Amino acid sequence: MKVFSAGLVISTALTAAALALATPSVLAQNLMFGAYDPRQQETLWSEAISLQDSGQHSEAIEKLKRAGHLSRINEGLNAKSQLPYLRAEIASHRALNQLALADERQAYLSRIESTTIPSGPEKVEALLAQAEWHQYALLQDIDEEEESTARMGKAWNFYRRALNESIATYGEDSEELIPALEGMVRAQYLLASHRGIGAAMPGKMDRDLRNYAAGKSTFKRGLSVLVAMQHLNRDRLGVSREIQADDLIRMGDWAWWTGNRMNAISFYQDALTLANGETLAVDTGEVSVSEQAEVAVESDAVEGDIDSSIEVTEATGDMVDAVAPQAPITSKDEESSPSELVTTDNLALELAETDGEPSENALAELPTELFPTFRILNAPVALPAVPGFGPVLDIKQGEPAEGDLVVSFNISATGKAINLERIQFPVTEGARGPERVIRRLRKMRFRPVFEDGEPVESERMTWVFEPKHWAMPRATATESST
Fold first, then answer.
1. CATH class entry, domain 21-116
2. C-alpha 57: how far from its chain's center?
3. 448, 202 in Cβ contact below 8 A?
4. Which of 196, 248, 310, 405 is 20 to 30 A from 266 (CA-CA)?
5. Cα 336 to Cα 331, 332, 340, 359, 451, distances in angstroms
C-alpha cells in the first residue's frame, strides 16, 4: 500500500480541477508544459496579440489575464513580468470602451510599476503613460464631478513626476524633457475646461459651469509651463526661428483660449516679428526649466484645484519650490500703446500687481538684423492646437457622400464660427441629428487670421462631417440648400 502526503493529494486535486475547467487550448498547453509552467506565458502572449490585431479583444483579455496569473504564481504578486500583460489588457478594455474596468487595471498597474521600475527612461515612459490614461479618462468624462477633480490632480501630478524623472535622467538641457512639458500643457487645458474656461474640448468633456474669477490665475499657471518649454527650446536646444515662432504662437493660443485677448495678440505679433525676419529682444537671465514649470504647482495646491495628497516628488529630481517664471521675450514697437505691450520681466507677478493688464516693462530691442522670412498666421486654426489632443470635430477629407453634413462659414476676428450656411443637411429619424455638430462648431474657438499684425475675418471655409458625429443607425435623407 502506497502512502501519499496531504500536500501532494491537494496539489493533484487542484491540478485535476484546473484541467477539467480549462478550455481546449488551455488544456493543450497544460498537458504540454504543466498547469503553471512559465513557458505558457509566451504562448498566451502571442495568442493575445494575434487576437487583438484581429479585433477580438474579449478573447485577448482572457489570454492576458491567464498570462498575468502565471506570472504572479511563478514570480510573486509584484512580478515585473506581468507589466506587458496588464498594459495590453488595458488597451483591449479601452478598445471595448470598458473604461471602468480599464481604470481599475490602470490603478493596479501603477502600483506594480511604482515598486518594480527603477529611476531612468523606463520610469519616465511609465509615468507619462499613467498621465495619458487620466487625461483620456477626463476627456471621456467617465467620472462624477468630485471624482473628476481628483483625477485632474492625478493627471497633473503624473506629468509633473515625469518631468522630475526626466530632469534626473537626462538633465535640464535635454530634448527628452519635452514630452513631460507637453503633458503639463495639456493638463492646464484640461483644468481650464474643468473650470468652464475656454471653449469646446476634444472628446466628451463639456463643463457648463463658468468660473470667471479663475481665468487670470489659470492663464498665469498655464503660461509658466509654456515659458519653460520656450526657454528650453530657445536657450538650451537652440531651435530654429520657425520653432521659436511656434512657441510664441502657442503662448498666444493659451492666452486667447483663457480670454486674455490683449496678451494673445502681443504673443502673436512677436511671432510675426520673427516670421518677418526681424530680431526680438534678448533675455540674458538664466532660469531652469524646473523653476519655470514649478509656479503652476504650488498655486494649484493652494487653491485646492489639484489633489495635493498625491505624492509628487521623489528622492531624485525634486523640483525647486515655486518661483514665478520669466516671461517670454517680446519686441517693443514704438507705435504700440502701453496696453498692447506684454511684460517681459516676471510676467506672472506683474499681471497679479496690475490686475491682469500688461505693463510697459519691455526689454530694449537689439540692433536690427534681418533673417529669412516665413509665413504664419495666414489661416484659421481650431483650438486647442496642442500635440496629444485630437480634434474637437473630425473633418472628412474628400468629396462628401449623400448622408454627410456640409457647412460653410467664416472665422471672425475674435475666433468664432460665423455666417454659418448649411450646404447639405441630412434629415435623420430620432433625437440625435446633425444639429449637435453645428452646436459644437459654434462652441469651438479658433486662432484667427492675421493681416498687418491684426486679427481679421477669414475667407469662406467648407467642412464636411460624416454621420458618425450624430451616430444613429437609421436611414437618412438629405436636404440641400437652394
1. mainly alpha
2. 25
3. no
4. 196
5. 11, 8, 6, 12, 16
